[in-house]
Design brief:
alpha+beta, six-stranded antiparallel β-sheet, 33% helix, elongated
Length: 550
């Protein structure tokens, strides 16, 4: 170095730097002895097999020539396969304490495809979570080593199970449930609190449906654009239903509870954070005449329904449908069209129980004491309105029965049950009015007989109860039209008819309480000449209602 003009001090410094660099290089290579320091995924680790060249660390040029207990992978995945989104334990063991790296072909170790044990151990457990996909398998690869040796573990594989899969919820803590809910892929909303998530897999599609309750859950594929459990064209609906911990496939052609379904291989029916989650895989093409094809890139009707119990039962109002494109996973809500029968039902019931019958009751109750009233005038108005309303509600009830026969909704919901009770009470009124003839009206100054008192309580009481329930049920019907997703036209018609009748009667009653001789009452019953006609001579102004309700 002095020959080239370098001072001795400089030469010494350069020599020291060279030695330092050499040791850094050696230490770096020694550091790579720990597999955890390697950046190597599942595919990368395929190059390391027993006896293969390693060369990433000082003093370990090759992988150990054998495998087995020197580095070994075991798992607690059941023999019949793993369940989607379920966590399992992958354990790597060695004969002597060594560092570890384990990788997986699918699924995750705490958000990564690999997991490390940086300290030397003879056994280390790694938590692995299975993928959400309803098909495929998983393989694990691992290395165990230090600065003196490196061993390759024999690859271990597992397949997805055949299902059904059920996730227990009794041991789920509140924090865990919240975390699960946040990581659950919901996808697109196809109905209130009902979400659809899907992934195309070649000629198949993986589907996940999440409901809002822990009860049964189902979706169906149908042709056309109409929300119908028998198919938009009436040809049938290809339905997948998760109930009692199992997913079954049904071909539905009638408005009745499905039966005889076929178990779907590889599907899962689980409860996660209080919500039912159904997963299944199906082919895009329809393989038989009892299947509906899936058309990615084109919107198609997907209907949904769910219940409150694990066992399949009537869904009540928990049903609907959306047009879904499985290529973009976009959904468009669909309003249900109202059939002519349902239109007739809501129109006739709104006219009868929303207008005619309440007005008949109000006139009978509020016009008897009007000054200069024509004798029996209130009764004539009451009788005509109640008889007309009675006939109209019978037509409306017949339309309801017809609708039930076509749609299989049965008399099971609050609206149907209340409506049936109201019709029974209302229909009985003209007949119990006939009993009035057997319960003589008392002459002026006389007390009514016990029979007359009982009859009046029965006739008036039943009339009041039926009228109040009838008016309320009209508004329950409007609410159900909105909740069921029916067209806005039907909602407007029902609300307007019910509103006009309800508000007009309510305002009249308030007005008559303030002023009994109001303009409406006097127009209806008052007379400029207090003359009794022959037809009205038998009717006393204090006579109670004799036809429908008072």
């Amino acid at each position: 170095f002095q020959r080239f003009g370098c001072e001795p001090a400089v030469v010494g410094e350069m020599a020291a730097m060279g030695i330092h660099a050499m040791w850094v290089a050696i230490l770096c290579r020694v550091a790579l002895a720990h597999p955890s320091s390697m950046t190597c995924n599942y595919d990368c680790m395929a190059q390391y097999t027993p006896g293969s060249t390693f060369g990433l660390m000082y003093g370990v040029p090759t992988i150990g020539a054998t495998s087995g207990d020197t580095c070994k992978i075991t798992t607690d995945i059941p023999q019949d396969g793993y369940a989607p989104d379920v966590s399992y334990t992958v354990t790597v063991t060695s004969l002597v304490p060594l560092a570890q790296k384990v990788t997986a072909s699918s699924g995750l170790f705490s958000g990564s495809t690999s997991s490390n044990a940086g300290t030397k151990e003879t056994s280390h457990s790694h938590t692995w979570t299975a993928p959400s996909s309803l098909s495929g398998s998983v393989s694990f690869r691992a290395l165990c080593g230090d600065s003196q040796e490196m061993w390759y573990a024999t690859e271990v594989s597992a397949n997805i199970g055949t299902g059904p899969f059920t996730t227990a919820t009794t041991s789920t803590t509140e924090s865990t449930a919240a975390a699960d809910a946040e990581t659950l892929p919901l996808g697109v909303e196809i109905g209130p609190s009902v979400h659809l998530f899907s992934e195309l897999q070649g000629s198949s599609v993986d589907v996940q449906v999440t409901g809002s309750t822990a009860g049964w859950l189902g979706i169906g594929f149908s042709l056309g654009s109409t929300v119908s459990m028998t198919g938009g064209t009436g040809g049938g609906c290809d339905a997948f239903i998760c109930s009692d911990g199992e997913v079954k496939r049904y071909w539905i052609t009638s408005y009745s509870q499905p039966s005889g379904g076929v178990s779907v291989p590889g599907a899962s029916c689980s409860v996660l954070s209080g919500r039912t989650v159904m997963r299944f895989q199906r082919t895009l093409a329809a393989r038989t005449s009892t299947e509906i094809h899936v058309t990615p890139g084109t919107e198609q009707m997907v209907i949904w329904a769910f219940g409150s119990s694990a066992a399949l039962s009537y869904h009540q109002a928990n049903r609907g449908g959306s047009m879904v494109d499985f290529a973009t996973l976009e959904a468009t809500g669909v309003s249900k069209e109202v059939s002519a029968v349902l239109y007739l039902h809501l129109i006739f019931m709104a006219i009868s129980w929303g207008t005619l019958l309440p007005w008949g009751v109000a006139i009978a109750n509020r016009t008897r004491s009007v000054s200069n009233a024509r004798p029996g005038a209130w009764f004539q108005w009451h009788k005509k309105l109640q008889m007309l309303g009675w006939l109209v509600q019978l037509v409306g009830f017949a339309m309801a029965v017809w609708h039930v026969q076509e749609n299989g909704t049965h008399f099971s919901g609050p609206h149907q049950i209340i409506g049936l009770v109201v019709v029974i009470l209302g229909t009985s009124q003209p007949f119990n009015a006939l009993l009035r003839k057997s319960c003589a009206h008392p002459h002026p100054g006389e007390k009514p007989t016990m029979g007359r008192v009982v009859w009046e309580l029965l006739h008036k009481g039943v009339g009041y109860i039926a009228t109040v329930l009838g008016v309320l049920n009209c508004w329950v019907g409007v609410i159900l039209l909105v909740r069921f997703g029916y067209s806005i036209a039907a909602v407007v018609v029902a609300a307007c008819l019910s509103g006009l009748g309800t508000l007009s009667v309510l305002l009249y009653v308030i007005l008559s309480v303030i002023n009994k001789d109001n303009c409406i009452s006097t127009t209806l019953v008052a007379s400029k000449h207090a003359e009794k006609s022959k037809d009205d001579s038998s009717q006393d102004s204090s006579d109670p209602v004799t036809a429908y309700s008072a």
